[in-house]
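My hope is that you will study the record closing this message with an eye to the fold:
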Amino acid sequence: MKTVYRAIAGLFAALVLGISALAGANWRPDRPVAELAVRWAPPPSRFLDISGMQVHVRDEGVANDPVPIVLMHGASLDLHTWEGWIRRLEGSRRIITFDLPGFGLTGPSPDGDYTIEAYVRFVRLLLDRFGIQHCVLGGNSLGGNIAWEAALAMPERVEKLILVDAGGYPSKSFSVPIGFRVASIPVLGPIVRNVLPRSVIAASLRNVYGDPSKVTPELIEETFAMTLREGNREALIQFLAQSEHGARAGLIAGLRAPTLSLWGAKDRLFPPEDAQRFHRDIADSQLVIFAGLGHVPQEEDPEQTFAAVKAFLEQSPR
């Protein structure tokens, strides 16, 4: 029996040493936003004081556009995810993008509230700050979930809605990025807050692309840097703990804004069945599904996805 105990003790000691070595090799302290902003927030980026946060925003394109396009990114991404569309829009439209609370250079919310309701209140404050009374509102993943909830809360302000692999229905994910899985395990909190292997970021990004070979070293570096922004790892833990997947799906049928849903056929986080549900439940709805693309199609193939957006924006309201 003593031999068995010694063997177990030896295995436990080896496990502890292995974890310690891994943690030591991948120990990554938080990085201050001022340091990251040098590379990731050049003009036209600026920071606005909204709801106690210095919010990273970009206001680009035609300044006198009466109905700006406001776009919101997904969880653990940032405003740079829309750059492919912005290059194609900036000559004809005004586009406003920003880093949502808890992500990118905006960083954590002072009250630690990452519910959809809190995000909708934040969007209202941001629109008020810009003096926007009418807009086209769009979002990817989490940003799409916020977009349709904001359209319900402010129907008089949202003229059109663009949902890109949006959240909203009960989760039936076939594959969740490893970064989200690890951050969702409470006992691993101390590790998640201080340890970040670059390989976890790379694997998480490849998981959400239809073609993993399109994930560039530059994209991995950007996502890695934003995750290290002070407070973002703790915010991600809180965000995941507060997520209520599909809890308000019954409200979707109340949407009245003309809506374009874009979806990657290879999305394994929010499968294409969710796209069909949005299309069925929203009265004035259009749907385009892109073969070969994943959860962030606007990033993976901006040219093909933007063609559908352009056609939608040019349509007169019915």
About this structure: Residues 1-30 form one domain. Residues 2-25 form the longest helix (24 residues).
